[in-house]
Amino acid sequence: MNPPTKIWLGLGSILLLSALFRFYHLGSNPPALFRDEAEKGYTAYSLARTGGYFYFSNLPYQPQIVFQPFPLFINVFGVYTSAVYQYVAVPFIAIGGLNEVTVRAPAALAGVITVLLTFLLLSCVADHTTALIGAFFVAVSPWHIQFSRWAQQGILIPLFTTAGLYFFLTGLQKTRATTQKRFLFLLGSLFFVLAFYGYAVCRLFIPLLLVVLAISYRREIRHNLRTLIPAVVVFVSLAIIILYFYLQPERMARLRYLSIFAQGLTVPQIAWQLVKNYLSHYSPSFLFFNGDRELRHSLLGFGEMYLFSAPLLIYGIWVLLRRRRAFDRLILGWFLIFPIPASLTAEGIPHALRSIVGIPVPQIICALGAGNLVSAFQKKYSSINLSSLQRLAMRMLAYLLMIIISISVIIFGFNLFVFYPYYSAQNWQYGVKLSLDYIHQNKIPPQKVYLSGYITYAPYLVLFYEKTPPTLLKKEGIRAIKYNFLPPGVAIDNLWDKLPDDSYLVLYPGELFGHKPIHIIPLPHRKNTRTYAPALLIFHKG
């Protein structure tokens, strides 16, 4: 078997492993559809059926539904986001229908493609062994796997940035003709634009990354300057258009709310908070032990990286600092800037989703460190001065390291597929689908049902689970939803007497006292457990 065949078989095995981690039980793990997923799924469903989407206006007192054809940006209760994930999901939902698998499949597929792109990117600058190690580290990365299993646009960013860098570095190769170079640079710039458009944090991160890229490859860029001009013009022109849209005052509300500069702090306090936020993304707790505190972003008791990768990360950084090649400078710069956008926000720090722009740079650093060790090991192992006992000791050490890595990955996988669906259910708005199923099974008219105001984005969840035809929504407006939605922050005890008789309420535990529910939607629990907690309660006003 020749080496190229071994490499491709190894890459195929790694891609299969990455697909297993991302597609296995995708419809039921995470255990329920989160509100953002419901919005993206129904918007993609609407785009597939009507070529447009619906958004809510005149909130909260006289809500109306407005139809907009072929949107570039999505209005979700006054918050504007890109439509990139929704458009990517259109073919999946058009072919497979509206369900949990089809809305999450683009994220899972993006995760697998990112593994492939990591291999291709590293192949441009390192040997195939190092590239395979990098692909493997991304394939089994807890950070990357977690976000590859649910529908949000953040998971597309590692794909776009890695693709942009791959096409840029490929274009710099001297063997390429000018026309090929220009095409590759244009392709790279389009992926950078997609990242810039795709997720809010990238409007700061992508320009920073491009500055790092320009500094790291300044000599190569100087020799390809004329060829690069079309790509630069395309990126700058499209980025200005995107910025112009987002910098409108009505679209800056969420940014102002989240910004650290809008919290009433003094300048020294802001500076200190920025430093703390920034450094928290490098803390051992975040990287190796506990991860993000939000269970949608991390598994309980797991960091964003495996503990075995800590020495590899440190050694990899040392290798990059010692060699100082252009790619080494790029990776180090990327590693230094990735927490900056997340650090400018005032909640959930350290934040695994807002810092997802860092993937796959820690994995690449670990791979470069591991590749350097493998090279040194092979050189040492082939030395004629080694005794047979020394060779055996080195071989046993290599096997021990592989066993440690395998056990770590297996433990993570066991937690992800066996325990995570149970202990994370509350974080995924579990119970809404089961509540609607109960209503249908008991032939309760939806017009008599009131959903808790604390079920955030409840209209999107209803639209998704009910599979409301977009044509009906376009024709009848908000009346097509049929269900009623209680206002958040208002005590149900104060509303109870005002509700019509024969009303049904779907509420969280603790919202209503003094009344007995007619049905309890329990949180998922293992078969052998005798006690379980309620997810939602259904009340009837007789």
Structure description:
This protein is α/β, with parallel strands linked by helices. The protein has helices at residues 3-23, 35-50, 84-96, 100-123, 128-139, 142-147, 156-171, 178-198, 202-216, 218-223, 225-246, 253-258, 267-280, 284-289, 309-323, 326-337, 340-343, 361-381, 388-423, 432-441, 458-466, 470-476, 492-496; strands at 52-57, 64-69, 73-76, 79-82, 449-451, 484-485, 503-507, 519-522, 534-541. The chain folds into two domains: 99-425, no CATH class; 426-541, no CATH class. The chain is built from 23 helices and nine strands. It has a five-stranded mixed sheet, with helices on one face. Helix 15 (309-323) crosses helix 16 (326-337). The chain is globular.
